[in-house]
Amino acid sequence: MTTVEPPGANEPLDELDFRLLAGLRELWEDADPMPATLVEQIRFAIQLEDVDLEVMRIREQEGLVVARSAAEQGRLITFDSESLTIMVNVSPEPGGTIRLDGWLTPPAEHPIEVRTANGPLTTTSDAEGRFAVSGVPHGMVQVLVRTLGRSRTVSTPAIEL
Amino acid sequence: MNVAKTDHSRVAALFDAAREGDRAALDELVSLLTPLLWQVARDQGLDVDQAADVVQTTWLRLLGSFAEIRSPVALTGWLITVTKREAWRTGEKRQVERPLPELPERLAEASPAPEEGVLRDDQRARLWRAVDTLPERCRSLLRIVAFVHRPDYAEVGARLGMPRGSIGPTRGRCLARLREQLLANGEGDWL
């Protein structure tokens, strides 16, 4: 296979190349900007004492976008990992806080920690894998399941509620 | 210029500290490298929410994997690889042909401080048009490489599936094509 190399393809990068790359960075930052809160969200998520984590994914589903922005409407978010699924129903409470009703699959009793901007809220799931936490403030929220009998903590990503 | 944003020695120092458990250093690494990972995730065709989740998941995965990573250059490569892998798991089918997004007008009053903005309006427009004429593979490569600090070009090129020789110490055919295109456009402001 023969390809025609454009002139200069094999020369070291020069000053113009670096200007072009800096310009490209600026253009992409303008054309496809990161969400303003992304870095803050990630910093919140990684402020964990545990480093041996099983990280869950938000399972794709209808209405996910709405769930982010409209906690007041009551939405179901499902998180998945290799060993666990968590369904969390997010609903508004009087007084402007949020109630989380969760359901773990496979069902089991595990210590649950809901990290919030104001500190952690803890509970334990019952034998059916159900748990509920009320009084959750709006803002960044991350659910940790400190699964009994296993060393790894299961964590959802931080989401904005 | 973006020198501060892409300072390799800063990343190297932070990498060592973060690996020893310094959370402030890890926070700063997140600030420095998340813009790169955002572009990687978006370049895989994810929507904004999916891309944000994927980038966050990548950083969470790093928490348990720091010990495996030998150097700052390897860190960048690792983060890019995990972001791409997570994007593939998360994503819908990637669109085959994706047009370049609209470039928003840069309003004079909204412009950052002069030393932050590298480009004047006419240069912006011409560079973006030149990018638009590149093959998708080149566009994609340059999009990511523009967010990488220099010592990492070779590693990143390899992670993006480009042969090592084609980017790094050499100009790389995509940059050369971009320059050709700017030349073909006539005006000499860039060159």
The chain pair forming the largest interface, with residue counts per chain, is: A-B, 51 and 65 residues
Cα(first) to Cα(last) distance of chain A is: 54 Å
Q: In angstroms, what is the radius of gyration of chain A? A: 22 Å
Mean residue pLDDT of chain A: 86
**Stretches with pLDDT under 50, minimum 5 residues of chain A:** none
Shape of chain A: elongated
The SSE order of chain A reads: HHEEHEEEEEEEEE
Characterize the main sheet of chain B.
none
| Radius of gyration of CA atoms of chain B, rounded to a whole number | 17 Å
Q: Hey, roughly how much beta strand do the residues of chain A contain?
A: 35-45%
The number of helices of chain B is 8
Major sheet characteristics of chain A = 6 strands, mixed
Principal-axes shape call of chain B: globular
Count of helix runs of chain A: 3
Task: Please bin the fraction of helical residues of chain A.
Answer: 10-25%
In helices, the fraction of residues of chain B equals: 55-70%
How would you classify the quaternary structure?
Answer: heterodimer
Characterize the structure shown.
The complex is a heterodimer of chains A (161) and B (191). Chain A has 161 residues and is α+β, with helices and mostly antiparallel strands. Chain A has helices spanning 15-31, 38-46, 64-69; strands spanning 53-55, 57-58, 75-80, 85-92, 98-105, 111-116, 119-124, 130-136, 140-145, 153-155, 159-160. Chain A has 3 helices and 11 strands, in the order H-H-E-E-H-E-E-E-E-E-E-E-E-E. In chain A, the strands form 2 sheets. In chain A, strands 1, 6, 7, 9, 10 and 11 form a 6-stranded mixed sheet that branches. Chain A starts with 14 loop residues before the first helix and ends with a strand. Chain B is an all-alpha fold. Helix content of chain B is 57%, strand content 0%. In chain B, helix 2 (23-43) packs antiparallel against helix 3, helix 2 crosses helix 4 (72-90) and helix 3 packs across helix 4 (72-90).
